[in-house]
Amino acid sequence: MAARDLQRYRRGHPDSREQQNLQNYRDDGYPELMPNVRFYRNEIPFQPNGTLIELLHYYWKDDYYELEMNHNYIQWLFPLRERGVNPYASPLTPHEIQVMRSDDVIRRRLLQSYKLMLGFYGIMLLDENTGDVWRAENWMERFHNLNTNTHNNLRITRILKCLGELGYEHFQAPLVRFFLEETLCSGNLQNVKRSALDHFMFTVKDNSECQALVQFARDHYRPKYQFELGPAQVLQERQPVKNHFFQECQPFQNIFLQERKPFKNIFLQERQPVKNSFLQKHQSVKNSFLQEYQPVKNHNKEYVRSANTWKSFLHKRKRAFIIVLLCFSIYVWLDLWQAYFGNTEDKKNLMCSRKA
Question: Does residue 48 have a cis peptide bond before it, meaning omega lies within 30 degrees of 0?
Answer without folding.
Answer: yes
